[in-house]
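[09:14] KT: can someone run the structure on this one? pasting the chain below
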Amino acid sequence: MRAVILAGGQGTRLRPYTTILPKPLMPVGQRSIVEIIVNQLKQHGFDHITLALGHLAHLVQAVLGNGDKFEINIDYSLEEIPLGTGGPLALIENLDETFLVMNGDILSDIDFQDVLRFHREQEAIATIAVHKRVVKIDYGVLRRAGYSLITYQEKPVFDYEVSTGIYVMESSIMRYIIPFCHLDFPDLIQRLIGNGEKVACYPFSGIWYDLGRADDFRFVQDNAHKFKDAIPFIG
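[09:31] RB: done, structure tokens below
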């Protein structure tokens, strides 16, 4: 089975750390996040991983190599200019079957095989794993009409379902991606929906942290030992 890890971003939200270290090599416990992801994918039956790289690509290649030490086939697709989150898929050869694609900065205990099963049951062109996030606003939030106050909420809390950055896609999705053109996943998904394609949502309530966010990264760094049972590859 084929998986694509998107690991070409500059990690601007984690600067200055990512000035010299690419985001996928940021540590979680004793291993980098991308090493944890590779081990998880192997555990779930994937035998071919392609990493889409850009920023400091040579460092990621030096750590992962061809995958021999993980007993899995690893290769690379390199972008010369930033192509967004969806654009790099057009550079990857032989995406001719159902494949999984995910960001290279995700710490999660999601069952990739279950996402694949769900995707096939839904008969969708793409499936997005979604997670509920609570957003706290540390201000008094006002709504007004002209100069007249309508509502006043002190430090409201909102629940949202957000993309986990984990997707399953059919090869037919490639006809919606123009090679060498910048394209982010939100725009790709809107393009699919606009053309009548089915995009499914896989609800997921387990462990999920976006290590590209400074708050999530700090939390995981401080609590990595708590995740070892659920994610043993942390080490």
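[09:33] KT: thanks! Helices lie at 33-43, 57-64, 112-122, 185-194, 214-223.
[09:34] RB: yep, looked fine to me
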